[in-house]
Amino acid sequence: MARARWLFGSLRNLSSLRFWRKLVIRLLILAIVLPVILTVLYSVVPPISTLMIGRYAQLLWVDRQWRPLEDISPHLVRSVITSEDSGFCTHGGVEWEALQKQVDVLLNEGESPRGASTLTMQTAKNLFLWGDRSYVRKALEIPLAVLLDAVLTKRRIMEIYLNVAEWGEGIFGAEAAAQAWYGVPAKDLSREQAARLATALPNPLGRNPAKPSSGHRKLAATNLSRVNGAGPIFGCVLDK
């Protein structure tokens, strides 16, 4: 009798182990396949960010008004590329050399790596990952950015980014930001307004584009100067 109970318990444990193993495998497959399916879907369907989903789940206010790229000021496109990722049109989603330098800093100096995050990686983070900084999140950004770059055009990546980027508490996307901070549609943003919005992106909750601090104004002025001297780095997104 005792042997039968032992045998039954062993079979039950084995069955339970198989169940959890199958569950883990299925979840891993889902984690791999779902971003691919969503990326293909996002080539035609306006997506929302994980941060927006989190706010919706908490019943918090969200202002996002999707606009096609042609209805967003080219000044903002230029300022964002210049400020965030000047190699956007030439890399395949990841700036490998810059990333290697940051890894070397981490390994040799023990400092937390900064920078090396392309617009495509930021878009991947906004669409699929969480906001808190971590090495795990950064590692996941890389294959997701490569996926986005392989499936979507540069114009579509930029269009998605400018429609999901956070520009204040509950303010997402260029149209909502332009309306909230300047009372104008995104297509009518001036060069200075675009520069202030672009340089607010690294700290959207701490920088006010409508009433910038002296430091923020200097960043925006530097951005304007860099845009003027940037050369042909916007061709994959803008016609001229």
TrEMBL record:
List the GO cellular component terms. Answer: peptidoglycan-based cell wall; plasma membrane
Q: Which reaction does it catalyse?
A: [GlcNAc-(1->4)-Mur2Ac(oyl-L-Ala-gamma-D-Glu-L-Lys-D-Ala-D-Ala)](n)-di-trans,octa-cis-undecaprenyl diphosphate + beta-D-GlcNAc-(1->4)-Mur2Ac(oyl-L-Ala-gamma-D-Glu-L-Lys-D-Ala-D-Ala)-di-trans,octa-cis-undecaprenyl diphosphate = [GlcNAc-(1->4)-Mur2Ac(oyl-L-Ala-gamma-D-Glu-L-Lys-D-Ala-D-Ala)](n+1)-di-trans,octa-cis-undecaprenyl diphosphate + di-trans,octa-cis-undecaprenyl diphosphate + H(+)
Question: Molecular function terms in GO for this entry?
Answer: pentosyltransferase activity; peptidoglycan glycosyltransferase activity
PANTHER family cross-referenced by the UniProt entry: BIOSYNTHETIC PEPTIDOGLYCAN TRANSGLYCOSYLASE, MONOFUNCTIONAL BIOSYNTHETIC PEPTIDOGLYCAN TRANSGLYCOSYLASE
Subcellular localization is given as: Cell inner membrane
Every Glycosyl transferase family domain range: 61-218
Supply the alphabetized keyword list.
Cell inner membrane, Cell membrane, Cell shape, Cell wall biogenesis/degradation, Glycosyltransferase, Membrane, Peptidoglycan synthesis, Transferase, Transmembrane, Transmembrane helix
Protein name, per record:
Biosynthetic peptidoglycan transglycosylase
Pathway it acts in?
Answer: Cell wall biogenesis; peptidoglycan biosynthesis
Keyword Transmembrane tagged? yes
Pfam families attached to this UniProt entry: Transgly (PF00912)
What is its EC class? transferase
Gene Ontology biological process? cell wall organization; peptidoglycan biosynthetic process; regulation of cell shape
**UniProt function note:** Peptidoglycan polymerase that catalyzes glycan chain elongation from lipid-linked precursors.
* Transmembrane stretches, start-end: 23-45
Against SUPFAM superfamilies, the record matches this protein to: Lysozyme-like
Q: Does the keyword Nucleotide-binding apply?
A: no
Q: What are its E.C. numbers?
A: 2.4.99.28
Q: Which Gene3D superfamilies does the record match to this protein?
A: Biosynthetic peptidoglycan transglycosylase-like
